[in-house]
Amino acid sequence: MPKLTFASQSAVLAALACSFLYYACSNDSSSSGSPNAAQGGEASGSGGKSGAGGSKPAAGGSPSTAGARNDAGSAGTPSDAGSAGTPNDGGAGGEAGLGDGGSSNPGPMKVSLHFKATVGDQAFACGTTYTGQGSTKVSVEPRDFRFYVQNVRLLDTKGNAVPVTLDTRTPWQTPDVALLDFEDGTGACVDGNPEKNDVITGTVPSGTYSGVVFVNGIPDALNHGDPLQLPAPLQAGAMTWGWLYGFKFLKAELGATGAPSGDAEPGLGLVHVGSTGCDNALDGGMPDYGSPPKVACTEPNRNEVRLEGFNPATNTIVADIGALFAGIDLSVDNQCHSEGPSCPSEFAALGLDFTTGAPTTTQSVYHVE
After folding, report:
1. Are residues 42 and 189 in contact, defined by beta-carbon separation less than 8 angstroms?
2. How far is 291 from 243, CA to CA, in rounded Å?
3. What is this structure's pTM?
4. What b/e string do you get for 334-362 counting C-beta neighbours within 10 Å, with b at 16 or more?
5. Whether pLDDT at 189 is above 80
């Protein structure tokens, strides 16, 4: 047997050491800053696309939008690949790829749902005239457009509706409800205010989403509260009917720019949607409008909008007030306070059954772009 040299003896000893001390000889990449194991999602902190314009700080300094919308990559995958960060509000890098040696727990993902108001295919703006509106194709000017949203969910790749946990973002949203406001108090929008809001922010479990579901409404537990005691955005005085009937879930108004003849008043299309059939006079007498109902309102009038093909990182939810009034003669006075002859057409456009106040499966006001 040949005699081992000093170098050969050293190699044998090193091999024996490796067999007992595995980590002394293993690859150092898992503990020395591997770019795959622990640094995923850096792309989400930069290169974001800013939120839709028009949102302004409200009184008290709170911004009405929530930062930038990130298009840098798909929703983070819990793996070592460290794919580009989840769609968020332009904050710190995404959580994809975090973990120890391959395992990960990405936690919640920030999302921003961007809305845009239109009159047909044109952007909604107070003080602007729009031609060819309603069933009689008249020229109109916006007077109001705002609505509440509750019960927001995103659709995952299996079609499951995953709840969005809403941020507290004063004065536009609480964890229970958000207010989208597209008027700015100019032109014919005389009952409005300068501040606008076109975004809802919150968190969902990390994943891939391809649709959105939401309701125009306010949770029943809040709908009949005292607006003076409730938090913003439930302090918007123009959006309430008082304690008995609660809030207007949606307020949309278009006014004709000219009268149809002589001394006639210009036409008006108006839709105020809220719960009806609310009562607190169980003996059949006159109800007390300054008190909440004692039984559930018989027509809740809360729709459920379901939109496929929606990615919160890249898509926008369009609310078309023109589609809402498409079947209405806007050359004359046509007002729907959740009661009235013009309501069936407008309720159908919103996805509501006018007779029962229940949601239907079709609507024409909202779509994705």
Report:
1. no
2. 5
3. 0.72
4. bebebeeebbebbbbbbbbebeebebeee
5. yes
